[in-house]
Amino acid sequence: xxxxxxxxxxxxxxxxxxxxxxxxxxxxxxxxxxxxxxxxxxxxxxxxxxxxxxxxxxxxxxxxxxxxxxxxxxxxxxxxxxxxxxxxxxxxxxxxxxxxxxxxxxxxxxxxxxxxxxxxxxxxxxxxxxxxxxxxxxxxxxxxxxxxxxxxxxxxxxxxxxxxxxxxxxxxxxxxxxxxxxxxxxxxxxxxxxxxxxxxxxxxxxxxxxxxxxxxxxxxxxxxxxxxxxxxxxxxxxxxxxxxxxxxxxxxxxxxxxxxxxxxxxxxxxxxx
Length: 273
Known about the structure:
This is Methyltransferase. This protein is an alpha/beta fold.
């Protein structure tokens, strides 16, 4: 995971966010120059509509699972801070199942790398950055989170057979009225079980709902704001066939660009009591 350890760091805020105590406007956050490279994907990821659907507001404590390259970090951190809190959660580096040694090495160094990059980007002390592997979240954080966001990140733990364990751990982070927002690459509803391969990134919506229910959650609402009916979601190369990855380079590039990014479900869950 790059975790925004790129030139994008230089484009982020140069002054500490803590110096500004007014509630930020989401439109201003989305229009900020720090997102100059990210904004091209707004047409597919719909951050304003997604955060509204997840009922995310300034001042909340929001935990993001597997922030990856930091696309949503660059929205959530300035939107939530300074009155709220952004918490980054990553997979357990001891779980194994990494695609290669480089991926394992990134996972092992993730916590410190994320803290360092976040501190540099937002002008804060790295010691105060909240970033944890999912099995190492301190007790004082548990029960304090308003929202957990899992954006295009369920297929990895599912493929590694640790998804339900992770979801139970996330449930412990939530306040009693806390909720989980999910955006996930969506396989066709009528796809056979044998055709659904989490290694390809796609999951059936019914399967996501079922595993959430088995992990102690109840569906609140679903939305089609991140849907893409142009995506047949049956690519041999998985979701990475499409942009932004374009796995096959120039081969059929125009075709994939015309389709756009993947079809995605958008779901909101609360804790079942």
